Every structure is written in C-alpha cells, then in structure tokens.
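Dear H.,

Thanks for agreeing to be a second pair of eyes. The structure we're designing against is below in token form, covering all 171 positions.
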C-alpha cells in the first residue's frame, strides 16, 4: 500500500471536515475585526479599539471578538458603554443579532444591546423593546477603552456620538 494516497486522503478529510472558521490571532494575512465589520457594511466605530482576536464561522455568521480585559467608557454627555472581554453574536450584511457582552447604561439601568441594524445612513441599536437610531457618520472612528472619544483632553472627530437620539420605544 502506497503512502501517498493515504496522505492525500487524510489531507482531503481534514480539509473537508474542518469548519470554516477564521481566527485573526493566528494569521497575519486575515482581516482585522474592524475590516471584517466593514465587509458586512458596518463602520469600525461600533467596536472600541483593542480587539485582540476574533473568530467567525462564515457559514452561520456566528462570531466572538476578544479584548484583553473588559472595556468601559462614557460617551460625551450621554451613555456609558461596557464591553465584556468576550462579545459574541451573529453577523450578516447590515445586521448584528443575538449580541452578548455589550451593555449601555440608560438612566440608572444597565441594558444589554442585543441587535444593531444598518438602515441606510443610520444604525439602530436595540436593547429589546427599546431602541435608538444614530447617524452612521458618528461611528467612523473607534472609541478607546477608558476614555471613549475624549482621551487626554483631546476630543476626537466623533465626539458627537452621545448626542444622537435617546433610547425610545420601538413599539
């Protein structure tokens, strides 16, 4: 029995059975989490700076994005956001669903952001029965953990992010 057919068969088996995952932490040629967002028609600013790696199952859209630690920041004059060290969900063109690991503080309550939908030049952030719309232009830059868009007293171009529509009932 020849060794070459066995090796070829083993290679084909592994290639065909391995799930279609992308892991940015292990391959420098793969897109960053931010460029991956853009390929699904989202701006980079819906993720803060500091994603250390991610994985994506292309066949289902299920993803995980990883930070070295949790990430919190306030947006000028408005919301406090909290990203856990791992966030997950399902991504498709213009839609992030089943999100976990991202919270927004509205008044005195912490609410989970469960969905983000791009509708033309607006993003709708849903926390279940309540949602808010923001102009896409407010997300062209990524905020920084700890200081958002006002780091070291220098306000970034996207400082108006917190001035969008407040969370209103979607019913």
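And this is the sequence the design step returned. I haven't edited it by hand at all.
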């Amino acid at each position: 029995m020849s060794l070459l057919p066995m090796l070829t068969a083993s290679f084909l088996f592994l290639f065909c059975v391995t799930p279609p995952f992308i892991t940015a932490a292990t391959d420098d040629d793969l897109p960053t989490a931010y460029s991956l967002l853009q390929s699904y028609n989202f701006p980079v600013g819906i993720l803060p700076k500091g994603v250390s790696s991610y994985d994506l199952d292309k066949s289902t859209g299920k993803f995980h994005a990883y930070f070295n630690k949790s990430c919190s920041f306030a947006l000028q004059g408005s919301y406090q956001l909290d990203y856990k060290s791992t966030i997950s969900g399902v991504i498709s063109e213009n839609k992030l669903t089943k999100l976990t690991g991202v919270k927004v503080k509205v008044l005195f309550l912490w609410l989970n952001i469960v969905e983000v939908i791009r509708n033309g030049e607006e993003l709708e952030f849903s926390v279940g029965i309540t949602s808010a719309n923001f102009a896409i232009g407010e997300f062209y830059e990524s905020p920084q953990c700890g200081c958002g868009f006002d780091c070291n007293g220098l306000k970034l171009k996207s400082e108006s992010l917190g001035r969008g529509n407040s969370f209103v009932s979607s019913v």
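Two observations from my side: The chain has one domain: 20-162. The helical segments are 3-17, 33-39.

Warmly,
E.
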